[in-house]
Design brief:
Blueprint lengths: L3 E5 L10 H7 L4 E3 L18 H14 L6 E5 L1 H12 L7 E4 L8 H17 L1 H12 L2 H6 L1 H12 L3 H12 L5 H5 L5 E6 L7 H10 L3 E6 L6 H4 L1 H16 L1
Parallel strand pairs: 1-2, 1-3, 3-4, 4-5, 5-6
Helix pairs in contact: 1-12, 2-3, 4-5, 4-8, 5-7
The structure holds D-malate.
D-malate (MLT) binds next to loops.
Length: 248
């Protein structure tokens, strides 16, 4: 049976983050790339309070579709959601792909930064958030060589709902350290990051690989935080090789 890949976007983005990956990965797996609660076309209410709310939404979606097992592939905030899914129902995960993310909780300073972002979204609006975030989420090489991606990401962020963005920022601040949860996942896992990811430096990925009993690390050269969008061929190749390993 073909595996089901559940592609989980980052913050404050939507399912179109996965546009460069879906067609290629669909040759290997069933693809579900939802908009998380309040993002993109998803207008569900009330706003999330925790990453667990999003994990629960996803299990409900899978139940509605009669899908028992999935491989969550979560980028950054999507990775936090994937780890919340792992904690809630490990038996439903046929694999796990964590991209440009971390298993640790926020520091006090980071939590304060989340509150500032939430207030900025509420008070100044998404255009301001979008302009500030683009240079942080795209790697230096991408900003230099693919300027069109800056516009794509800025537009994607700017169209998100400000209240959802504020809620997600506060929800991320509440997430627990899930490093110990990773230790319990015995199946093969994949950790992907970009060599130019300034938001999630390499040691955060190495720490997840060290915690997971059977994980491989792929560092994509010249990619920043949005590795799947910046270097889709390398990203797709890593995921396909992983799916082949899982099927052995
Ligand atoms: C994301 O891309 O989802 C965010 O950078 C996650 C975060 O701020 O921790």
């Amino acid at each position: 049976m073909r595996p089901t890949l559940l592609l989980l976007h980052g913050f404050p983005l939507d399912h179109t983050l996965w546009t460069p990956n879906v067609a290629r990965l669909a040759r290997e797996a069933e693809i579900i790339a939802p908009d998380l609660r309040g993002f993109g076309t998803n207008t569900a209410q009330p706003a999330m309070r925790t990453m667990d709310d999003l994990a629960n939404d996803l299990f409900s979606l899978l139940d509605q579709r009669g899908i028992e097992h999935v491989i969550p592939c979560g980028l950054s905030m999507g990775g936090y959601v994937a780890m919340a899914m792992l904690e809630r129902s490990p038996e439903r995960l046929a694999g796990l792909i964590l991209c440009n993310t971390r298993s640790t909780a926020d520091t006090e300073e980071a939590k304060q930064g989340r509150e500032n972002t939430a207030m900025e979204a509420e008070q100044k609006g998404m255009a301001v958030i979008a302009r500030a975030m683009v240079p942080k989420v795209l790697g230096a090489t991408t900003r230099r060589t693919k300027p069109e991606l800056s516009a794509t990401v800025e537009t994607m962020i700017a169209r998100q709902d400000a209240r959802t963005t504020a809620a997600a920022s506060r929800a991320m601040a509440l997430r627990p350290d899930r490093t110990e949860v990773l230790r319990t996942f015995a199946k093969p896992a994949l950790v992907i990051t970009g060599s130019e990811d300034e938001l999630m430096p390499l040691p955060t990925s190495q720490a997840m690989v060290a915690a997971l009993p059977s994980a491989q690390l792929v560092v994509i050269p010249q990619a920043g935080h949005l590795s799947n969008l910046e270097k889709p061929e390398a990203f797709n190749e890593a995921v396909i090789a992983y799916l082949e390993r899982l099927a052995e």
